[in-house]
Specification:
This protein is mostly helical. The chain has 22 helices and no strands. It is a multi-pass membrane protein.
Amino acid sequence: MTEMQKSGWALLPLGLFILLFLGTGIYLQSIGVEYAFYQLPAPVAIIPALLLALYLNRVLLPSRPNLDDSLSVLIKGMGNNNVITMCLIYLLAGAFASVAKEAGGVSAVVNLGIGVIPSAYLVAGLFIISAIIATAMGTSMGTIGAVAPIAFGVIEVTQIDPAVMAGAIVGGAMFGDNLSFISDTTIASTKTQGAELKDKFKENLIFSVPAAMLVLAIYIFLGGDPIEAIKTNEQTSALLALPYFFIIVLAVLGLNVFLVLLLGILLSALSGVFVGTYEIASLGQDIYAGFANMQEIFLLSLLIGGLSELMKHQGGLEFLVSKINKILSKASNSALYFKNQVAIASLGLVTNSAIANNTVAIIVSGDSAKKLATQGEISAKRSASLLDIFSCITQGLVPYGAQALLAAASFGISPIDVITHVWYCVILFFVSVTVMFTRKS
């Protein structure tokens, strides 16, 4: 067996993980199970892959390490500084999202937005509301869950196509999820690429804002007939929305993300107590509920970190990068910067198409993307942005993704109808490709 073959075999555990995760989803979807692709939790699906990786560590390496040595490699990957930092941020981000929501922050943002949207431009307005909430909350699923019921009430009294409305909400949610400082995709991409949150945010704006402006122009052009003002059932103070904007401003200013999130939790609780009806006695339970909401991605990040370390130890990641380089070898050396950007973007697209989870896709392909970025002299903020953007593009356009499934269920339409109207993700793809080849970071 040659060294190259050894490296290729080292990718088998990743293939097994994708096969189990995707195969189970396809089968369950075929028999009509709801949310089929999320019935087998990813932290469970990865266990057979880890066992295979441990076995291959002994078979492939000339030193024939024993089980204890192989487990040491696994634990080293799980204990990687970036992985542990990422996991701690996940916990605090979950806590902030939980406390802010229970304190009335989400309702405040939605009601504030609905109150100022011109009635003829509700689709454009709800795209903006979804974008703001997702940027503040750091979760596209939470945003869709919060906004979709209100949007469904809107279409019941208008002639707006439900698929267009659903596509706008998913698009806005993906915009915000891609930019948010507390999104798990942002955290994963910056930590795997060694980028600063504020730098990645500013880099992302170059791609995301033009795409958002274009899709807004389309929604405004489509317009609609003026209708009676839409009223929500819940009356909340606009002051309850302040914690969301507070953490965005502090994060842009470059304050440490741990401190930003801790201050966000405190301010959300206090604003809920003094302006709303939040009871401070429930703060501990709400924080813990936020921790629990991050359980799956917390565990998966640890396990993926261990799997990646084993694959790297066996030469698998080196093999993957060399294959990508070979595919793109027709480009001249002078074009290496642009060629490797395409490679990083392709990693995000292909991996997420298989896994249908943009955070997992980023974690899985993070090491390979960083190697490509170093080789092509691509800045960390650009590689982090590309990984996040292209995985989010795919996530918004796969019919078996959680976002499309939730939006489809909320509006009573097919996931296919949803993804064919997520115009933001389509426009973002073309804008991003243009930026990649016309602007260096």
